[in-house]
Amino acid sequence: MKQKEPKNSCAIRTSIGGQALMEGIMMRGPKKTAMAVRNPKGEIVLEESETRGVKRPKICRLPIIRGIFGYIDSMVVGYRALMRSAEIAGLEDVVEESERKKKKRLAREAEQKRAAGPTESAESAEATDAPVPAEATAPAAEQAEEPLEQTAENTGKSAGEKDEKSEEKLPAWVMTATMVVSIILGVALAIGLFVWLPTFLFNRVFLWLVPAAGSTGHAALDSLIKSAFEGVVKVVLLVGYMALISLEKDIRRTFMYHGAEHKSIFCYEAGKELTVENVRSMRRFHPRCGTSFLILMVLVSIFISFFIDPVTIAVSGHVLPTLWRVVVRVLLIPLVVGIGYELIKFAGRHDNLITRIISAPGLWLQRITVHEPDDSMIECAITALKQVIPEDGSDHI
Asked: Which of 112, 142, 167 is the last residue in one of the domains?
């Protein structure tokens, strides 16, 4: 029998949010941001900083607009935290360590073959009944030992050099450039998958299979069919992508940390002491989750798409060409992000029928992206959360 998720009664509602990292968790409060990550020794490494966006101009805190800036900010901070967590957890050194061990093994095998050389010569001499003087074998043995010592010194030197290199950090501008390029590529991929691909599939696949779907004689109905098809493709792509990456071992562990993040925030909102036992008893699906935000953005984009063709027909008298339709949808992304942010914020502040309907798709999708954590993960979440809870209660919403 499947175990039901516990229902939490919230004493307060907080604006504190978090993000699962590589072997750790980041928590963002109204004043401070903290990151708790386990290093290769199993110790929790805690790093703190001031929360970005606190001193933004008033215009950047207006509804819709604040969601755009908040989303960009969360992408930048989240990427940096993710890279830093990989560094602390030692994950970026795994490949280098593997290569170093491989080189050591090959060097050891080579030395063993060299060391075995004189012995084989002696055995060969005995087999031919030719006596081998001790003086002849001694220098060979000494020569065999010499490279071993030299290799050990070189190996130590090489390891020392690698340790020194691993301690050196890349310049700040290189890290910033890498981050910017990664974000640009990520956004381009998202636009390709969720904006261009659905339109392409409708025009090249769906209309080929169902020709009547694009020529009903009613522009509004044609637009509805097109938007509905594109919407289904978007949802399938998002759910399929989440389900696919959840099969990877490291991503699954990250999703477990995601569960620890939700449970600890729920424990804090319930007014309970932040202990492993209390956090463990909380539910793992939270309405203010980033997963909920993603699915909400997809649903909002579907809703807005319904109006693109009717509006353009009313203004220009004809439907936009495919290329211009894609361009318009790209230009509408900031509006989609802003509306999605307001909806997720509203759902986090209230608990009624409307907010439950808004939260339902995200809570369902969280069954893929939020897994049950172990106690060590919960400890990381508690450590990070305690650092960002303000004493003045400014996180209460």
From this structure: 167
